[in-house]
Amino acid sequence: MTHIHEIDLLHQGVQGAISTWLVQSDTGNVLIESGPASTLDALRRGLQRHGTDLESLDALLLTHIHLDHAGAAWAMAQHNVPVYVHTKGASHLLDPDKLNRSSRRIFGERFEDLWGALRACPDGSVHGVGDDHVVSAGGLRFRAVETRGHADHHHAWHLLDVDDGAHCFVGDAAAMRLPGTSWITIPMPPPEFDLDAWLASIDLLEQGPWGALHLTHCGIVHDISAHLGQLRDALKAQVAWICRAQDLSPSDRPAAYKASLKQSAAVFDVPESLFEAHVSQGLLDMNLSGVDRAFPEGLSTLGNTP
Questions:
Q1: pLDDT tens per residue across span 142-174
Q2: Are strands 19-24 and 3-8 parallel, antiparallel or unpaired?
Q3: Half-sphere exposure of 230 (CA within 13 A, CB side)
Q4: CA-based angle 68:80:139, to the nearest 5?
Q5: CATH of region 3-225
Q6: What span, in angstroms and rounded, lies between the C-alpha atoms of 4 and 25?
Q7: Considering the entire predicted model, what is its pTM?
Q8: I need a labelling partner for 305 at 20 to 30 A (CA). Which of 116, 148, 218, 242 fits?
Q9: Percentage with pLDDT > 90 across the chain
Q10: Domain ranges of the chain
């Protein structure tokens, strides 16, 4: 018998902000995503509720190395838990100095409270894998599905042999959904945001054999076509909006962008308090920077994609 448990890490006290997924078989435990180091205590408590702990995991699978997904990987790796990640991300888990410096530069004095530092994983603990690689651990099998766009080192993980392969753990490839709603927010970070690659990943996820997408940022999606259709349209629309708004002053752009997102959320009856909790200044700044970097000349370099 296989059981899948969502562990809400209650990042910054916000429900549905960041989750990890524990998959338990009769013979083992596999965790997808570690969450950030700042939520390690919440992860420990979540694992204990399901009768296990960090030290007893058979494997940790990471969708990518951003700190909200992989920042606590070292805590499992130091207990000889094997860590599986995209080949392009593996070296950063062994030597995280560059990743930490970049994040500190972005988040400044808020870095420790938000994420905490990613410590180096011990040599031999990190295994870089490529597209279609199958990881066997704890009596379970997972297939890596390369899903670029949010990052160029991103995998979704397809759980094989269970419910006819119905489950896919998608990291940020299917973006983020606000708890209790079907409204999607989209993280578009520099320097790796790639619109065309993300659209191709959406097509790939839409055509897959799975019947459920397990999001790192809030819950399970069963109506895959509707979710990915909304993501595709919103991704194009937001990129086009940010490109058009490049003439606004730097001080005015975040507020204008937030207002445009609030209009979108209103269509889905998103409560204002929920919107404010999840649409942070960090998300706004990240997306503006990510699109600006990808399309430095605005609509002229955007072409006909949207």
A1: 999 999 999 999 999 999 999 999 999 999 999
A2: antiparallel
A3: 19
A4: 85
A5: 3.60.15.10
A6: 9
A7: 0.96
A8: 218
A9: 92
A10: 3-225, 234-302
